[in-house]
Amino acid sequence: MNDKSTLSSILVVDDDPAVSQLIQCILTEEQYAVETASDGREALARDDLKTFDLFILDINMPAMNGYSLCTELKNSYEMRDTPVIFLTGNILPEDKVKGFECGAIDYITKPFNGSELIARVRNHLEVKHNRDYLKQMALTDGLTQLYNHSYIHERLVEEISYTKRHELNLSLIMFDLDNFKLVNDTFGHKQGDKVLQKVSRSIKDIIREEDVAGRYGGEEFIIILPNTDHVSAFKVAEKIRKSVKNLKWDNRDMKITLSGGVSTLSKESINEFIEKTDVLLYKAKHDGKDKIISAVPVMN
């Protein structure tokens, strides 16, 4: 039995159940994980929408048509590079042009040929997976495998814009390892690198899939938490702090702790948001280390 998590995932959005089921049957036989939705609104309501590797959309659907859905997908930071194929009965050249202008990568007309659909899907997924690999290499810190400083800054700009546009919450956590210079001086830089790697794994094990963790510099880490209020963000920060404090090390004399600051976006710019959180981080270090300080007091 195939593990769905290892398969390329495809969402088919079509208001004709017979068409959706046919596409699902054809592509499932090719070892793809295929889900269906009956229109654009149903698709956008899916909690797992951002996890799909490719979208196949009809155009003429109730509630929200394929053009509008494609535009919504392309306006999302996480899904703007996910390939969209229109599979529709609209055959006029102007329909195709509109589809490409919305951001689609391909256009197939009904009735369709199964072998052609498979070939197009396979090619677009191969290109996407290759692009994702190269993108990941460029955006990732080589030592910790967390996102690097430049990507974190770019992503935070996007998240702030999205948060303000949709009137949501956005929280930020900044961590700094306590006395890390002493760790390097006492146990060596090789051991210091292992500490950074182990702490990074601990962070990744705790945060949600939609959260974005990065190495902001040296021994400093940053986590973007979309749609998260200050209380929930503080709880995440505390969970990470405790997890790091309880990590086991080969050298029993080595104790690793971290300090952190937590804040939630109000009306600040990106630089003001980061600075506000950074000030809280260094207040935590100044007040004794191994603690989390929030912009809004939270009962621990």
From TrEMBL:
Enzyme class at the top of the EC tree: transferase
Biological-process GO terms, alphabetical: cell adhesion involved in single-species biofilm formation; negative regulation of bacterial-type flagellum-dependent cell motility; phosphorelay signal transduction system
Domain GGDEF: 168-297
Protein name, as recorded: diguanylate cyclase
Top-level taxon of the source organism: Bacteria
Organism field: Spirochaeta isovalerica
Residues annotated with 4-aspartylphosphate modification: 58
EC identifiers of the protein: 2.7.7.65
Catalytic activity: 2 GTP = 3',3'-c-di-GMP + 2 diphosphate
GO cellular component, one term: plasma membrane
InterPro entries xref list: CheY-like_superfamily, Diguanylate_Cyclase, GGDEF_dom, Nucleotide_cyclase, Rev_trsase/Diguanyl_cyclase, Sig_transdc_resp-reg_receiver
Gene3D superfamilies reported in the protein's UniProt record: 3.30.70.270, 3.40.50.2300, 6.10.250.690
Keywords, alphabetical: Phosphoprotein
Residue ranges of every copy of the Response regulatory domain listed in the record: 9-125
Molecular function terms, GO-annotated: diguanylate cyclase activity
